[in-house]
């Protein structure tokens, strides 16, 4: 069942030409954690604030649990939307204790005994012995759990998290990501969260939506995004990738420097292909279907070597080699591209990025 | 579609807060509209042309002259003492640091008649001169332009001192040390580095001095110097020509407008003071010998003449006359003053909350401008506000009285004008700025995400204000209220014009006694005003200290 449904949402600030959110459509299913990932300025936070009701859309619809909250010339007030939200700076009320913060959003009609509900929630987030503390007496991680508890307490249909991990230091981050995910799952809540850090998304989210320039580039599970990226932008979000112009013909990619045979593809004509550094094999002897190359730079990283190689015709590639042999600048090597690991990308979206 | 769009945009802003904001701003702007519309009205030709022919040049020369001379004097006293207190080690430096603000507690009119009394024929200075053998030959006459300029500067220089000190203190030591390592003397460092960096802030403080000079009525009137404010009083009370008073107000406002513009431009040009904030504090210079004595004197003289001497004299007079002064009537006087100040201060705080929260709820440039407009009052001299409120209220009263007489054949008195209502109204118009500023700063500090958190938890705007915002800005509400309270207690020109018949406050009573050659008798109410005036100074000083200790900068 869809908890959140966004259709063709547009938002522009002031008289700017550029859209902050451009024709965004997205659904989040019950019990799902969806991460909105993008660089700063990609529109991810705006999209979240549109869902929360702190910004007003220019066009498009949003429904939460089947109720229209945004439509043409209609926008439900944030306090009516029954959404929980965890803010980047947590926004805990500094003059209220942990229990009072959690109680703030609870109503007697929903929970006849408010104190029981507060106890239940603090137990769930593991803060039951901190109920009477004030926020400034808590550590960053604890404050965040209070913020989460406060958002979850009224049993909202949807909870939104704005950069939930950005205020934590690296050591704490790993632990908190796990905690937040398990608390949300335990509460049976549906969540949408915004992050600029792909690792946040990979470790906590069920599905990921990648935004760039206000547009949603691709939505999918981490594996789908990694294995079948739609364009170079999505592909590059997971680390290094080699992109090259090619011509496809009968399962063969023709590059300027040579040919890669044996691909299972029905594409023909001018295309953009991409292959990850670990999917290129380095050989010391020429074999069938290999490219002769020259090492330009080799960096040793312990578990792998990063090798920059020139395959001629002004084409350069990066390889992650796990072989025991150490390469050095000027070495002659032979590269084999795994034809099944080559992605065909959408060329029309980011031609500027093609190297 | 586009009409629908703009309609829905307007609908977005259609809430109780925006209506309240618009209503408040409309009402608070009343004196400004009066000025604007009445400025082009016909004056009683003979009065206005008479004023133009005889005294208008005097008004312009005296007002502008006072602004210039007082500015120069306050700059000299304020900057020099601030520099010494922040960069040199002198005996009692810590005490000087806060005591140099104390002169601000003495209103200009009290300083004026106290000094007049001190230099009077029977005053301590003349008596002393006669005792040591100078006969009546030496008579120091301070009852003129130069006298009033010096007296005003003596109690107004802390406006410059406070801002200069805080910028000198927050300037990074490395900056000043860099200048010295490059071979500049400490004088060159002061003139080439410290002063230029502090200029925008100091000009801000100076503009407050100028406002006070143009607002003053009591001091110039007492010293017999005719300025725009005394002119407005004369046109209104002696010639009975409100339109001439309006014209004078119009010219005065034009001056003030130019002043504000100059200040804005000055500030806009210089953005560098922010960046220079980080870094250690300067190690203070250790002065020796006559330099140390000179530095100490530069700090002591303004403090002595601006606070210690007049307060000491007032205490002496008060001891002489307190038996005669304290009676039942005096208690009523106190109750009037305190009650009125409390009422107006409470209203100012309440209106500030409504205006600022309305801006917070309806984020829009337009509402922001409206709030700025509501804060204009402090730059308008009290006499001008009084005239601007008196004229429309009198008209309204006349209209009501006439209609009642015609329709019910009943005679009724004045309802709005010449009542506490008019006075309270005028106080709110003039002093709203004073409470708006600290409350706005506090609202800014709490930030928006706390509000959004409250909304996301299902609270409406009213609950958000009551349960989240107000508890968090409590101390700003209190200090804003105290600042307004004290300002109202000191206020003279506006109260003189608008007070109901036979109604007195501490300020008007003190001024009336002094004007009736009973300076010694005026000492007790004056002292009460001064003592209460020191409260905000102590609060401010404590605020600065605490902010220093936790390392944050509160401006």
UniProtKB/TrEMBL annotation, chain A:
The keyword rRNA-binding does not apply. One of its GO terms (molecular function) is ABC-type ferric iron transporter activity. The keyword Chaperone does not apply. Residues 4-238 form the ABC transporter domain. Gene3D superfamilies: 2.40.50.100, Nucleic acid-binding proteins, P-loop containing nucleotide triphosphate hydrolases. This is Iron(III) transport system ATP-binding protein. GO terms for cellular component: ATP-binding cassette (ABC) transporter complex. CDD domains: ABC_Carb_Solutes_like. InterPro entries: AAA+_ATPase, ABC_SmlMolc_Importer, ABC_transporter-like_ATP-bd, ABC_transporter-like_CS, ABC_transpr_FbpC, Mo/tungstate-bd_C_term_dom, NA-bd_OB-fold, P-loop_NTPase. One of its GO terms (biological process) is quaternary ammonium group transport. PROSITE patterns: ABC_TRANSPORTER_1 (PS00211), ABC_TRANSPORTER_2 (PS50893). Keywords: ATP-binding, Cell membrane, Ion transport, Iron, Iron transport, Membrane, Nucleotide-binding, Transport.
Automatic annotation (TrEMBL), chain B:
CDD domains: TM_PBP2. PROSITE patterns: ABC_TM1. GO terms for cellular component: plasma membrane. Gene3D superfamilies: MetI-like. Pfam families: BPD_transp_1. The keyword Cell inner membrane applies. Residues 60-263, 334-540 form the ABC transmembrane type-1 domain. It is found in: Cell inner membrane; Cell membrane. SUPFAM superfamilies: MetI-like. Coiled coil: none annotated. GO terms for biological process: transmembrane transport. The keyword Cell inner membrane applies. It is a multi-pass membrane protein. The chain crosses the membrane at residues 21-40, 60-86, 98-118, 138-162, 219-239, 245-262, 293-319, 331-357, 369-396, 408-429, 476-498, 518-540. Keywords: Cell inner membrane, Cell membrane, Membrane, Transmembrane, Transmembrane helix, Transport. Belongs to the binding-protein-dependent transport system permease family. This is Iron(III) transport system permease protein.
């Amino acid at each position: 069942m869809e908890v959140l449904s966004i259709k063709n949402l547009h938002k522009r600030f002031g008289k700017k030409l550029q859209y902050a959110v451009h024709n965004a459509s997205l659904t989040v299913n019950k019990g799902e954690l969806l991460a909105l990932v993008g660089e700063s300025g990609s529109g991810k936070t705006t999209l979240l604030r549109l869902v929360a009701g702190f910004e007003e859309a220019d066009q498009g619809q949003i429904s939460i649990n089947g109720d229209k909250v945004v439509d043409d010339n209609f926008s439900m007030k944030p306090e009516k939307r029954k959404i929980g939200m965890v803010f980047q700076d947590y926004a805990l009320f500094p003059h209220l204790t942990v229990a009072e913060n959690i109680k703030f959003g609870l109503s007697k009609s929903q929970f006849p005994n408010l104190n029981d509900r507060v106890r239940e929630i603090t137990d769930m987030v593991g803060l039951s012995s901190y109920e009477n503390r004030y926020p400034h007496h808590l550590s960053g991680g604890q404050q965040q759990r209070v913020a989460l508890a406060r958002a979850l307490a009224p049993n909202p249909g949807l909870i939104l998290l704005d950069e939930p991990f950005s205020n934590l230091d690296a050591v704490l981050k790993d632990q908190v990501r796990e905690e937040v995910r398990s608390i949300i799952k335990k509460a049976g809540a549906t969540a949408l969260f915004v992050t600029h850090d792909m690792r946040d998304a990979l470790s906590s989210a069920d599905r990921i939506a990648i935004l760039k320039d206000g547009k949603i580039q691709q939505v999918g599970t981490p594996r789908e995004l990694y294995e079948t990226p739609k364009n170079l932008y999505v592909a590059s979000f997971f680390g290094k990738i080699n992109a090259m112009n090619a011509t496809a013909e009968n399962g063969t990619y023709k590059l300027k420097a040579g040919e890669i045979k044996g691909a299972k593809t029905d594409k023909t004509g001018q295309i953009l292909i991409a292959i990850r550094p670990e999917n290129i094999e380095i050989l010391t002897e020429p074999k069938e279907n290999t490219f002769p190359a020259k090492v330009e730079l080799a960096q040793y990283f312990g578990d792998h070597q990063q090798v920059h190689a020139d395959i001629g015709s002004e084409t350069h590639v990066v390889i992650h080699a796990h072989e025991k042999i150490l390469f050095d600048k000027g070495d002659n090597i032979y590269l084999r591209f795994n034809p099944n690991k080559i992605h065909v990308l959408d060329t029309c979206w980011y031609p500027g990025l093609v190297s | 579609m586009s009409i629908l769009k703009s309609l829905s945009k307007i609908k977005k802003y259609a809430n109780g807060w925006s209506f309240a904001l618009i209503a408040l701003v409309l009402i608070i702007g009343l004196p400004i509209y009066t000025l604007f519309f009445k400025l082009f009205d016909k004056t009683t030709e003979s009065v206005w042309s008479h004023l133009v022919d005889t005294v208008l040049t005097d008004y312009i020369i005296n007002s502008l002259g006072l602004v210039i001379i007082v500015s120069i004097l306050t700059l000299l006293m304020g900057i020099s003492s601030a520099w010494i207190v922040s960069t040199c080690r002198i005996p009692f430096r810590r005490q000087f640091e806060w005591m140099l603000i104390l002169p601000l507690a003495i209103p200009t009119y009290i300083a004026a008649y106290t000094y007049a009394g001190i230099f009077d024929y029977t005053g301590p200075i003349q008596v002393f001169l006669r005792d040591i053998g100078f006969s009546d030959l030496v008579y120091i006459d301070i009852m003129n332009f130069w006298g009033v300029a010096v007296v005003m500067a003596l109690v107004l220089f802390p406006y410059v001192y406070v801002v200069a000190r805080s910028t000198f203190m927050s300037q990074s030591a490395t900056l000043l040390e860099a200048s010295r390592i490059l071979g500049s003397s400490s004088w060159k460092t002061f003139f080439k580095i410290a002063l230029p960096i502090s200029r925008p802030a100091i000009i801000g403080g100076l503009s407050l001095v100028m406002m006070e000079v143009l607002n003053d009525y009591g001091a110039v009137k007492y010293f017999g110097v005719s300025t725009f404010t005394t002119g407005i009083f004369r046109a209104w009370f002696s010639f009975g020509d409100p339109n001439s008073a309006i014209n004078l107000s119009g010219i005065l406002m034009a001056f003030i407008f130019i002043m504000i513009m100059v200040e804005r431009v000055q500030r806009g040009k210089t953005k560098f003071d922010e960046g220079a904030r980080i870094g250690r504090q300067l190690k203070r210079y250790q002065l020796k010998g006559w330099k140390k004595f000179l530095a100490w004197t530069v700090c002591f003289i303004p403090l002595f003449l601006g606070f210690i001497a007049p307060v000491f004299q007032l205490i002496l007079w008060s001891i002489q006359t307190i038996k005669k002064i304290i009676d039942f009537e005096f208690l009523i006087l106190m109750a009037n003053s305190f009650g009125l100040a409390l009422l107006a201060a409470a209203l100012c705080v309440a209106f500030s909350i409504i205006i600022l929260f309305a801006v917070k709820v309806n984020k829009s440039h337009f509402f922001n401008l409206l709030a700025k407009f509501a804060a204009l009052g402090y730059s308008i001299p009290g006499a001008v506000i009084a005239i601007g409120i008196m004229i429309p209220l009198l008209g309204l009263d006349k209209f009501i009285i006439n209609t009642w007489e015609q329709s019910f054949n009943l005679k009724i008195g004045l309802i709005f004008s010449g009542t506490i209502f008019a006075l309270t109204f005028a106080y709110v118009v003039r002093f709203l700025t004073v409470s708006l500023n600290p409350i706005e700063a506090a609202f800014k500090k709490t930030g928006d995400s706390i509000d959004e958190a409250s909304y996301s938890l299902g609270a409406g705007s009213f609950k958000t204000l009551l349960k989240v915002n107000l508890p968090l800005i409590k101390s700003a509400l209190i200090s804003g209220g105290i600042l307004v309270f004290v300002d109202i207690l000191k206020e003279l020109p506006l109260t003189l014009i608008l007070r109901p018949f036979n109604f007195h406050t501490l300020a008007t009573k003190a001024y009336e006694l002094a004007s009736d050659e009973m300076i010694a008798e005026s000492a007790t109410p004056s002292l009460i005003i001064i003592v209460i005036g020191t409260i905000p100074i102590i609060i401010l000083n404590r605020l600065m200290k605490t902010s220093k200790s936790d390392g944050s900068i509160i401006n």
